[in-house]
């Protein structure tokens, strides 16, 4: 299933900037950044639960937020891209 993950981390202090880097790094481990603080992740149910738990442990729920949008397995018809930065095929080969 394709999950869109967005986050907003308060970076007013050094701890917030550290949290932001950790959240971004964890999301990069599971998916593709499509915009600042927005990732598309192709996950199975177990991976989704694990990633969600890991991210919940990284943020400060008093001043940060996470949003998860489950686009499901038939996500191709739910995504429309316009503008710069061509879209990528989530199930295709990603070069690192």
What can you tell me about this protein's structure?
By secondary structure, this protein is α+β, with helices and mostly antiparallel strands. It has a 4-stranded antiparallel sheet, with helices on one face. It has 2 helices and 4 strands; from the N terminus they run E-H-E-E-H-E. Helix 1 (14-30) packs antiparallel against helix 2 (45-58). The radius of gyration is 14 Å and the shape is globular.
Q: Briefly, what is this?
A:
With 96 residues, the protein is α+β, with helices and mostly antiparallel strands. It is built from 2 helices and 4 strands; from the N terminus they run E-H-E-E-H-E.
The poorly predicted ranges are: none
End-to-end span in angstroms?
22 Å
Number of helices: 2
Alpha carbon gyration radius: 14 Å
The helix content is 25-40%
Mean pLDDT: 87
How would you describe the shape? globular
Based on DSSP secondary structure assignment, what is the total number of beta strands?
A: 4
Strand adjacency order, main sheet: 2-3-1-4
How does the helix and strand content classify structurally? alpha+beta
Largest sheet data = 4 strands, antiparallel
Order of helices and strands: EHEEHE
Strand content range:
25-35%
């Amino acid at each position: 299933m394709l999950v869109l993950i967005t986050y907003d981390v308060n970076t007013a202090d050094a701890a917030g900037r550290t949290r932001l880097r950790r959240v971004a790094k964890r999301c990069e481990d599971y998916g593709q950044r499509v915009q600042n603080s927005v990732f598309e992740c192709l996950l199975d149910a177990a991976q989704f639960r694990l990633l969600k738990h890991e991210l919940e442990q990284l943020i400060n729920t008093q001043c940060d937020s996470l949003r998860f949008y489950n686009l499901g397995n038939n996500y191709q018809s739910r995504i429309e891209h316009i503008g710069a930065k061509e879209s990528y095929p989530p199930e295709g080969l990603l070069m690192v």
